Amino acid sequence: MMKFFVLRQWLVQPCLRRIPGLSFGGNVRKPASKVTKSAQQREFPRVRVVDLFCGAGGLSLGLQRAGLDIAAGCDLDPACQYPYERNVKAPFHKRDVAELAAEELAAWYDKADIRVLAACAPCQPFSGYVVGRYGEDQRWKLLAEVERLVTSVLPEIVTVENVSRLSLRPMWSAFVGQLEDLGYTTAHAVVDCAAYGVPQSRKRLI
Questions:
Q1: Is the CB of residue 176 less than 8 Å from the CB of residue 7?
Q2: Cβ atoms of residues 108 and 69 within 8 Å
Q3: Which pLDDT does position 140 carry in this prediction?
């Protein structure tokens, strides 16, 4: 089984391009005239995304516009449900990821051929603005909860984003190491969002 650990949507599409039979936009192959509609549908794997810590749905919407099917969004904040379901048009689950069972997460994917787990945990525990000002933030443990779910469900692709200073923490090295032990090919880097069209200089670990 092919597994990838990819961080954020900037690397998801190039990664998926390497999966046989999967294309996007103008690169979608035109089937022969005699191929039936059902055969066309079987030719391409069904890629479905579950977005943990989805918020109002910015990442889900971006992945959807890239051609991926959003299976569900999950967030603890009930105020996110309306904008998420209104814009993404996918189910919203009000859940604490720390209490989310692997069996429930797996069921959200339904009949996906390729399962993508997006898990952009809250960045406040690792932010330079917060650290040293407001005491210990227990939300840093959510990265370990993502590791727990990945270990149990083994989605084909994992994508994560956070503040750049997380890359300096031992928990990040442990997280990446665990994924590699599970058989994932990993790739991560600190990038400037301005290089991807964001109108501000903002560095993120992807």
A1: no
A2: no
A3: 53
Q: How far apart are CA 157 and CA 184, in angstroms?
A: 8
For residues 82 and 196, what is the distance between their CA atoms, to the nearest angstrom? 28
pLDDT digits (tens, 9 = 90+) for 118-157: 998 875 444 444 444 434 445 558 889 999 999 999 999 9
Our CA dihedral for 160, 163, 169, 174, rounded to 10 degrees, sits at 0
Residue 98, strand partner residues = none
Catalytic residues: 123
Q: How confident is the model at residue 206 (pLDDT cuts 50, 70, 90)?
A: confident
Backbone angles phi, psi at 171, to 5 degrees: -65, -30
Distances (CA, A) of 55 to 93, 94, 118, 148, 194: 11, 10, 12, 21, 22
Is the C-alpha dihedral spanning 50, 206, 123, 148 positive or negative? positive
Instruction: Write down the pTM of the prediction.
Output: 0.73
pLDDT digits (tens, 9 = 90+) for 48-96: 999 999 999 999 999 999 999 999 999 999 999 999 999 999 999 999 9
User: Residue 30 and residue 191: Cα distance in Å, rounded?
Assistant: 35
Name the one residue in this structure whose structure tokens are 């525990």.
Answer: 125
At residue 29 the predicted structure's pLDDT band, cuts being 50, 70 and 90, is: very low
Q: Is 17 helix (H, G, I), strand (E, B) or coil?
A: helix
111, burial (CB in 10 Å: exposed 0-12, middle 13-18, buried 19+): exposed
